Amino acid sequence: MQKLRFTWAIYRRLIAIQMRSQLQYRVSFLLEVLSAGITLSMFFLSLALVFDRFGNLAGWTLGEVAFLWGIVEVSFGLMDMIFSGFDPATFGRRIRQGTFDQLLLRPVNITAQVLGDDFVLRRWGRIFQGMIIFAIAMRLAQIHWTLGKVLYLPWVVVGLICFFGGLFMIGATCTFWTVDSIEAMNILTYGGSEMMSYPMHIYPDWLRRTFTYIIPAIFLNYYPALFFLDKPDPFHFPRIMLFIAPGVGIGILLIALAFWRFGIRHYQSTGT
Fold first, then answer.
1. Number of neighbouring beta carbons within 10 Å of residue 112
2. pLDDT score of 227
């Protein structure tokens, strides 16, 4: 317990240092957040224009798709801020430059060091954009809120954060052997977030089955959305599948942590 408190204290100090350094130039920081939010909002505006022309997407209205989109954007933005240190692209550069060896020499938990090594506050641009889109969904979709739905919503976000964070961690671990990041991980992380922003039943069977039975992304956003929006399940899974999002996300993160520890045990420096 004492070791855990020590690790948590170190992590908080690392995050505090990151925040102070990034807020040193307040105007620059606010402009970065604003520009990120505006850029990402353009994609949703384009989608809204498509809905204005065609009315719906495979039976889903703009408000219902906005519900999917908003949750994914908020969750991925939070994950990208918290797990920035494990971003495979930047972590691969750390491996190439040999700076990861410096972290291993410190008498502090290596996972906490990597998590606290990069905490990108400008990701709030994506988070705020997701909140605005979610607010639009609340207005357009006319969701019938119950106590169960209110209590379940934060856990859906937690599940998504754990899921994408786990993928970041797996991608970072792979660079121990590949040295550079694997493009396939970007397909699963950034590409996966784009895919999960739309109803899963619009995709071809092979792609949907991949993200159901191999990478269980369908249970993290689409199935919870069916519950919140009171929509029928087109795939006729057991009803319990509507509520397993937190378990799936946390399970992926635990698998990633185990793979990360395996990678640490077998890490060999590049010699740079």
1. 20
2. 95
Contact 161, 249 (CB under 8 A): yes
Cβ-in-10-Å burial (0-12, 13-18, 19+) of 70 comes to buried
Indicate the residue type of 81: M
**Tally of CB atoms within 10 A around 267:** 15
pLDDT (0 to 100) of residue 69: 92
- For tokens 């991608």, the residue is 171
Model pLDDT for residues 211-248, shown as the tens digit of each residue: 999 889 999 999 999 999 999 999 999 999 999 999 99
Hey, is 57 helix, strand or coil? strand
The rounded distance, in Å, linking the Cα atoms of 151 and 223 is 16
Statement: residue 271 has pLDDT above 70: no
Short-list 21, 34, 159, 177, CA closest to 96: 177
Among 90, 68, 28, CA closest to 222: 68
* The pLDDT of residue 242: 92
Within 10 Å of residue 149's Cβ, how many Cβ atoms?
16
Residue type for 54, please? F
Residue with tokens 């408000």: 63
Quick one: DSSP state of residue 201? Answer: G
Q: Output DSSP code: residue 266.
A: T
Q: Tens digits of per-residue pLDDT, 34-69? A: 777 777 677 778 877 877 778 788 889 888 999 999
CA distance to 46, 77, 134, per residue, from 244 (Å): 32, 22, 21
Note the pLDDT of residue 49.
Answer: 83
pLDDT for 226: 95
Tell me the DSSP string of 34-79.
HHHHHHHHHHHHHHHHHHHHH--BTTB-HHHHHHHHHHHHHHHHHH
